[in-house]
Design goal:
CATH architecture of the largest domain: Beta Barrel
Helix content: 25-40%
Number of helices: 5
CATH superfamily of the largest domain: Efflux pump adaptor protein, beta barrel domain
Radius of gyration: 41 Å
CATH class of the largest domain: Mainly Beta
Distance between the termini: 49 Å
Strand order of the largest sheet: 2-11-14-13-12-15
Order of helices and strands: HHEEEEEEHHEEEEEEEEEEEEEEH
Number of domains: 4
Largest sheet: 6 strands, antiparallel, barrel
Length: about 350
């Protein structure tokens, strides 16, 4: 056999052997990786599901007290404010004294009450006299009837004056007592010690609200109105609690546009244990609506972005974890819809994904 042929044959064997070695290198590295018991405790595995794509709309909103659960307190008389017992934000119970107003109007009512009581006492005496005179045949039936009617008249006037006292909630020394009509929080206060209130004052001096349940009122722009329906899921975020999510549903659509902002208001009711949410807090509302398409969906935490591409880690078993490139159709805060790269039923790592990705791809 010519030596050139022998040399060429040897070179080909060497090249083939080298190629085979390089071909086998990649699988050997992957096959050598195993998810340990410690890793298994740290990761979460989710199954890919075909789901209707959910779109999102983000809206500006604020927290408000329920309209049926707050009361504005107005003074029924004018006068000098002698004491104020609460501040904005204080919790009060029904009947608690909020303020005291020394009032000339109350003094006049006290005078009227004293006069009415005197008139009743005098009318009763007159009636007794008439009864005695009638029994002695010294007066007529008309005189007795007149005395009885006069007593009824002054008693009615006394009853009216006493009812006014109850309504006005007067105290001693011509004082008007301002009390809390409901249990709740003082969310607005427009009165101070030594303030002089006019008798024709039309402004409330306190606002009290119950905030065990609150409203989240959001503004929807015209371009998004067609997507908004009652019952939509909503996630609420606040500046005060950036790491906490509040969830609810759209329970009312106010079908009138604000002429200034050209927005439609929607409402989400939220329970408020611990009174965390305060009226006038600024919030961001994300509402979810369904699109027409279905796509494979995975938790957004499953996706790894690296080298301008998106990947998921497909979990076959502890000794076989695959790095798979995907194409994303749409992504939300918690879910990603995939147009290519995975199929329903496959399993992906959705927690500590980057840790496994780095172990396999470094």
């Amino acid at each position: 056999m010519p030596w050139k042929y022998i040399f060429f044959t040897g070179m080909m064997i060497t090249v083939i052997a080298g190629c085979k070695g390089r071909k086998d290198e990649e699988p050997v590295r992957d096959q050598g990786f195993t998810v340990t018991d410690t890793m298994m405790k740290r990761i979460v595995i989710d199954t890919v599901k075909n789901e209707r794509v959910k779109g999102t709309i983000t809206l500006n909103a604020k927290i408000t007290a329920e309209e049926d659960k707050y009361v504005e307190v107005f003074p029924l008389v004018g006068g000098n404010v002698t004491s104020v017992n609460v501040e904005s934000g204080d919790y009060v119970k029904k009947g608690d004294v909020l303020a005291v107003i020394h009032s000339g109007e109350v003094a006049d009512m006290e005078r009227q009450l004293t006069e009415a009581q005197g008139d009743v006492a005098q009318a009763r005496k007159n009636l007794e006299v008439q009864k005695d005179m009638y029994a002695a045949k010294l007066s007529s039936d008309r005189d007795l009837l007149t005395a009885q009617k006069e007593l009824q008249k002054v008693e009615a006037n006394l009853t009216r004056t006493e009812e006014l006292f109850k309504i006005y909630n007067t105290g001693k020394k011509s004082d008007y007592i301002v009390t809390a009509p409901i249990t709740g929080f003082i969310i607005d206060k427009k009165i101070n010690h030594d303030m002089l209130l006019r008798s024709d004052n039309a402004q409330n001096i306190f606002t009290i609200a119950q905030i065990d349940e609150v409203w989240v009122v959001a503004n929807v722009y015209e371009s998004d109105i067609s997507r908004i329906t009652e019952g939509m899921d909503a996630v609420i975020r606040t500046l005060s609690y950036p790491d906490k999510l509040f969830t609810g549903k759209v329970d009312k659509i106010f079908n009138i546009l604000d002429p200034q902002t050209k927005t439609l208001r929607i409402r989400i009711r939220l329970p408020n244990p611990g009174f965390m949410l305060k009226p006038e807090m600024v919030a961001t509302v994300t509402v979810y609506y369904n699109e027409a398409q279905n796509y494979p969906a995975v938790p957004s935490s499953s996706v790894v972005f690296d080298k301008s591409k998106n990947f998921v880690m497909i979990f076959h078993d502890r000794s076989k974890v695959e790095t798979r490139e995907i194409t994303i159709y749409k992504s939300t805060n918690d879910k990603t819809y995939i147009s290519s790269g995975v199929k329903e039923g496959e399993r992906v790592i959705s927690k500590n994904t980057l840790y496994i990705y780095d172990e396999l791809n470094d």
